[in-house]
Specification:
- The chain is an all-alpha fold and 458 residues long.
- It is built from 18 helices and three strands.
- It has one domain: MFS general substrate transporter like domains (Growth Hormone, Chain: A).
- The longest helix has 44 residues.
- The radius of gyration is 22 Å and the shape is globular.
Length: 458
């Protein structure tokens, strides 16, 4: 393997000191087995750690808000503190998408991890002063959006490291490792806050952030094959498939991040007599994260569009059960249905994400003769670049769902005292997602299918 930069001649291919790899051919079976697999695995491990911490800081306010009783904020104000990081994080995902191609995946992972020190330290400062005004809390909550941006850059970077037939599992594992950060926060922060005070909710992450940034710098790699002009990458915004998948991802990932961050406040506002269940809120995020790779695995075998279609149907049914639990004041029905709902968002996350590289690969190689190895390899690389850019844009748009869900709950509770109106709106949206998935990817009459998907039209 040829290594650019400051790599020393004769050094092991898997550990280039210059950290810029110029010869990268993961779709070549021989290269993958002898060199690629080891390098890809190492980068994936450190990517997961950095992304995990990003999700942890991004969603830290889902737990902090239920401990702010001394500040006498309204439920709607508290939902704003949970929603704002989603809004900012979603917006940051667009520039974060292009950062690995511009600066290098290893370089940007180190920088993006280090930026997490800002929301961690500011949170500790804010909660240490009982006179901190609400607007300051809003500003500090907004900085937690740095963690939301990490997902886009991490996924865009890891796409380049794995061959097409392993991307479903690799991307699912990378995403799940990050998504579990929500569960980590909701599991670990309540006892940490109880033992050491609210300021510890920020300070406890500082040493871990330092480790992640240092590990990215020391052990990850940049790929010259991932270098791309941001203007060229933005061309994916002109493709219909980018926006169709963005819409569907609002329904899957946007729902995951929205439901998991809203859960603690939803429990305390709708079932105040069962406030102790906040200690179990982490289960939703954990389940949704762990099943995400299963969604990618199912999509690898059954087709992403088929899995996504029926998953939206399951989400509609789950929302109905959550509403039934609320209307009957049955906290255990509500809790169980909510766990099921979050699990379906995890399956959908994996299946929709698996569709993206398959769609753009199929479009790139369409009309290219596989016998022309040079042209076919160039088409595959172009497809990966387009896929990487599309993944970032889709993840950015999709993450706005987290903001809409939290604001939906907050607005519904402020207006009616309950969350039923919001749930009805969410179910209607999933019905539209079901129809869009079927119409765009699963119709069989007069439709030209993407060869590598067998169940997706472009």
């Amino acid at each position: 393997m040829t290594v650019a930069g400051t790599a020393r001649t004769g050094q092991a291919a898997g550990r280039p000191k210059g950290r810029w790899i110029s010869d990268w051919r993961p779709d070549d079976p021989a290269f993958w087995e002898t060199t690629g697999k080891k390098v890809a695995r190492r980068n994936l491990i450190w990517s997961i750690l950095a992304e995990h911490l990003g999700f942890s800081l991004w969603t830290i306010w889902s737990i902090v808000t239920v401990r702010l009783g001394a500040y006498e904020f309204t439920t709607d104000q508290l939902f704003w503190l949970v929603a704002l990081p989603n809004l900012i994080g979603s917006t940051l995902r667009l520039p974060y998408t292009f950062a690995p191609a511009r600066f290098g995946g290893r370089n940007w992972t180190m920088v993006s991890a280090a930026l997490l020190l800002i929301p961690a330290v500011l949170l500790a400062v804010a909660v240490s002063d009982p006179a901190t005004p609400y607007w300051v809390f809003l500003v500090i909550a907004a900085t937690a959006g740095f963690g939301g941006g990490n997902f886009a850059s991490s996924m865009a970077n890891i796409t380049y490291f794995y061959p097409e037939n392993r991307q479903g599992w690799a991307l699912g594992l990378n995403a799940a490792g990050g998504n579990i950060g929500v569960s980590s926060v909701q599991l670990l922060m309540p006892p940490v806050i109880t033992a050491f005070g609210l300021a510890a909710a920020g300070l406890v992450w500082v040493p871990l952030i330092v480790i992640a940034a240092a590990g990215a710098w020391l052990f990850m790699d940049n790929l010259t094959t991932a270098k791309a002009d941001p203007r060229e990458q933005l061309r994916v915004a002109g493709r219909a498939q980018t926006w169709i998948m963005s819409f569907l991802y609002i329904g899957t990932f946007g729902s995951f991040i929205g439901y998991t961050t809203a859960f603690p406040l939803l429990i305390t506002s709708q079932f105040p007599e069962h406030g102790g269940l906040v200690g179990l809120a982490f289960l939703g995020a954990l389940i949704g994260s762990l099943v995400r790779p299963a969604g990618g695995w199912l999509a690898d075998r059954l087709g992403g569009a088929r899995v996504t279609l029926w998953n939206f149907a399951a989400m509609i049914g789950s929302v109905g059960l959550v509403g039934l639990g609320l209307s009957t004041r049955n906290v255990w029905l509500f809790f169980g249905a909510y766990m099921l709902l979050v699990a379906t968002t995890g399956i959908g996350n994996g299946s929709t994400y698996r569709m993206i590289p398959a769609i753009f690969r199929a479009k790139a190689v369409e009309g290219v003769d596989p016998a022309d190895e040079k042209a076919y390899a160039a088409a595959l690389l172009a497809g990966k670049r387009n896929s990487s850019a599309a993944i970032g844009l889709i993840s950015a748009i999709g993450a706005y769902g987290g903001f809409f869900i939290n604001r939906g709950f907050g607005t519904s509770i402020a207006a009616t005292g309950g969350a039923t109106s919001a749930l009805v709106a969410f179910a209607a949206f999933y019905a539209v997602c079901f129809a869009v998935t079927w119409w765009c990817y699963l119709r069989t009459v007069g439709v030209r299918f993407v060869p590598s998907l067998a169940s997706a039209r472009v």
